[in-house]
Design a protein that fits this description.
- The chain contains six helices and seven strands.
- By secondary structure, the chain is α/β, with parallel strands linked by helices.
- It has one domain: fumarase (Alpha-Beta Barrel), CATH 3.20.130.
- The longest helix has 12 residues.
């Protein structure tokens, strides 16, 4: 299967061109944020305070780093289970977030939010954190340093591998593949 080269910023037009199941190689800027950072960002939105980065056409990678080996930019940097962010995702989508990368299924509410906001959810391979770290060219802490591995980081990536798990029309690879399994197709 051919891989689609995708550069950030991740615009609505780019999102609309992707289909559920597409394999992509992302290059450009990704931001990391997990549970604690999401709580702070959602609180900032509700209080109309500034966020650590602009959400418009951004991609958040649900991940935190492990220590890097000598001479390496990053240690293993695998995805976190995305459903942990579900209750905090809609305000981010409504404020311009265009893409999310993680692992696992999203709630129906988030899938509807993805469709309504013309966003995309990408799946990264759980257990492949060492492979993913090879795509990371630089890391900079942007905010919430007190959160340790959950601090918001700006990553510069090159050919970061991911799969379109939920496209901007709401097609969900988890549902499609489950139906194939259940019907034997």
């Amino acid at each position: 299967m051919e891989k689609i080269l995708l550069n950030t910023p991740f615009t609505e037009e780019k999102a609309a061109n992707l289909k559920c199941g597409d394999m992509v190689l992302i290059s450009g800027i990704l931001y990391t944020a997990r549970d604690a950072a999401h709580l702070r960002m959602v609180a900032n939105i509700s209080q109309q305070k500034e966020l650590p980065f602009g959400l418009k056409d951004a991609i958040i990678y649900y991940a935190g780093p492990s220590p890097s080996r000598p001479g390496k930019v990053s240690g293993s940097f695998g995805p976190t289970t995305s459903s942990r962010m579900d209750k905090m995702t809609l305000p981010l989508l409504e404020n311009g977030l265009r893409g999310m990368i993680g692992k696992g299924l999203r709630s129906q509410e988030v899938i509807q939010g993805i469709r309504s906001n013309k966003a995309v959810y990408f799946a990264a391979l759980g257990g492949a954190g060492a492979l993913i770290s090879n795509s990371i060219k630089s890391i900079e802490i942007m905010a919430y340093d007190d959160l340790g591995t959950e601090a918001v980081r700006k990553l510069i990536v090159e050919d970061f591998p991911a799969v379109v798990a939920i496209d901007s029309r709401g097609a969900c690879i988890y549902d499609i593949e489950r139906q194939k399994y259940q019907t034997g197709c």
